[in-house]
Design goal:
Radius of gyration: 23 Å
Strand content: 15-25%
Helix content: 25-40%
CATH architecture of the largest domain: 3-Layer(aba) Sandwich
CATH topology of the largest domain: D-Maltodextrin-Binding Protein, domain 2
Structural class: alpha+beta
CATH class of the largest domain: Alpha Beta
Number of helices: 16
Number of domains: 2
């Protein structure tokens, strides 16, 4: 059994004696999409969830895996296909209900159902069982070397609460379903939900019965969360003192915020890459002007489009230097990231035009690009820049930008042919990327694969990663999969994001690489 320290040494620097009660006013561009813990695997959604609910294990503000509702874990000594988790005793949900293994079994089984956006993380799981009240065993199809990595955002619900409130089934977010669990929550986390007005305001208050009250600063005792989509309005709110902390200082305002008295900008590379996806699988596209054919089905067209994107110009002009051009859809944090692949993107308009000609599209074509306008840093501006760049090779792009709540279902429901997406990797391993974005879209895999790409041989190799315990061999398999992904140009990588958190100078925190502010670690100095 593996026993780990409560938090990494680097995170312990954040722990200080509690001072007076403090309200923290928090803002970012977009709201959580839902409170249902298994309906949407999306950054701001899990960031709000982490304040209210808890997984078995979590990542602290440095990115290290630390205990949460489990205190120790490890592979079973008698069966290599089983991971055993010892649960924290004496924990209660916000309504006073006792937490035990029954809740974990219920929650993980719930997260494996078709409407769950987390099912890929549990694709190798064949059974979840509870030999006693404070022990859970996760049985996998072959030994799974990275099971704890897959659980860091897998929130645990109270089984009794879910049954009482008709919330046993995961919300069908893409289908437009609304449920009790979408707007209400009963977790074990450090903060309780007081009120929730989606896209307007969410209020949380300290959980006085939190199991970690003697182990974390917990100096933030009330959180008022306000999504502010407009960048200028968001910065104005920080500068005026209306809010204390914004997670997404616009790049054009970094110096202005940093120079303001009593405010700080704190910066770090993010574990996230931004890219474009293309529908290469359908025989004909709904959103182009080519009849009876799909230009994106030709790898030469996909490569030409990638070569038309000037990532250095986007970095310098759109992002004001706050990005790192990408050649693969894996951030440098991730096992399997390859420096040669990540530096492989080149801009060559003449070569791109030659590829278009060779593919039979010398005169170009038109297509719609679907883009969010409230999710990633300068998302719509990046798409606008790409419109001009693709025009140089004859691809006329009609840009349709909309809020993420309308954008993401287009990808999940296969209603877009060309789209922007960003991908963070909470497991820090390439298998996560492959399961969601490369594997054929189906019941257990590929929920975010809007490309319609399907390669049965690659699928089998991706599935095999989950039970390959020979790590050098596993890394060779990962590299082989990446080579195919690169050769087939599944996606057009743009860049790795850089995080710029803006806050009052008395707010004590480091910048988390997953862009998730876990407020129980924050201090509020004088």
């Amino acid at each position: 059994m593996i026993r780990t320290l409560l938090y990494a040494a680097t995170a312990m620097a954040l722990v200080a004696p509690a001072v007076q009660a403090e309200t923290l006013k928090w803002a970012r561009a977009g709201d959580a999409l839902t409170l249902d813990p298994h309906a949407q695997n999306e950054g701001p959604t899990s960031a709000l969830g982490h304040q209210i609910m808890e997984p078995l294990v979590m990542r602290d503000m440095t990115g290290a895996i630390v205990p949460a509702l489990a205190t120790e874990w490890g592979p079973s000594e008698s069966d290599p296909n089983v991971w055993t988790f010892k649960l924290r005793e004496g924990v209660t949900f916000h309504d006073g209900a006792e937490f035990d293994s029954e809740d974990v079994v219920f929650s993980l089984n719930r997260a494996m159902t078709p409407d769950s956006d987390y099912k890929e993380l549990l694709a190798s799981v064949t059974e979840v069982r509870a030999p006693d009240k404070y022990t859970v065993e996760i049985v996998t199809d072959g030994p799974n070397p990275i099971m704890p990595n897959n659980l860091t955002n897998m929130f645990i619900m109270d089984k009794g609460w879910a049954e009482a409130n008709n919330a046993v089934k995961v919300q069908d977010y893409e289908g437009g379903e609304d449920t009790y669990a979408a707007k209400n929550a009963n977790g074990t986390g450090p903060y309780k939900l007081i009120s929730r007005e989606p896209d307007v305001r969410t209020v949380l208050e300290i959980n006085e019965n939190y199991w970690g009250k003697d182990e974390f600063p917990l100096e933030v005792t009330r959180i008022e969360y306000t999504p502010i989509q407009n960048a200028a309005t968001r910065v104005a709110a920080l500068l005026s003192g209306e809010v204390d902390f914004i997670q997404d200082v616009p790049v054009q305002d970094l110096q202005r915020v940093a120079a303001a008295d009593g405010l700080d900008v704190r910066t770090a590379p993010q574990n996230r890459v931004i890219f474009f996806g293309m529908n290469m699988g359908d025989a004909d596209l709904a959103n182009d002007n080519v009849e009876g054919a799909n230009p994106l089905a030709d790898v030469r067209v996909r490569k030409a489009m990638s070569m038309a994107i000037n990532r250095d110009a986007i970095q310098q002009v759109v992002m004001r230097g706050q990005s790192a051009p990408a050649g693969m859809i894996a951030p440098p944090f991730v096992n399997g990231w390859n420096e040669a692949m990540d530096s492989s993107s080149t801009t060559d308009i003449e070569a791109a035009k030659a590829l278009m000609e060779e593919a039979g599209y010398g005169n170009g074509f038109s297509i719609q690009l679907d883009c969010p306008n409230d999710r990633y840093i300068n998302d719509e501006a990046i798409c606008q820049a790409a419109v001009g760049m693709l025009a140089q090779i004859g691809v006329t792009v009609n840009l349709d930008a909309k809020p993420k709540a309308q954008h993401f279902p287009l990808i999940n429901n296969l209603e877009t042919d060309f789209y922007m997406l960003g991908w963070g990797v909470p497991t820090y391993d390439s298998e996560y990327i492959f399961n969601f974005l490369v594997h054929t879209k189906g019941e257990k895999y590929g929920s975010w694969n809007g490309t319609r790409y399907s390669n049965p041989e690659l699928d089998a190799m991706i599935v095999a990663l989950a039970s390959e315990t020979d790590l050098p061999k596993r890394n060779e398999m990962i590299n082989t999969i990446w080579q195919t992904v690169q050769e087939d140009q599944l996606y057009i990588p743009i860049h790795h994001q850089v995080l710029n958190w803006g806050m009052k100078s008395n707010v004590g925190t480091i910048v988390a690489p997953d862009d998730t502010a876990k407020f129980k670690y924050f201090t509020m100095g004088g």
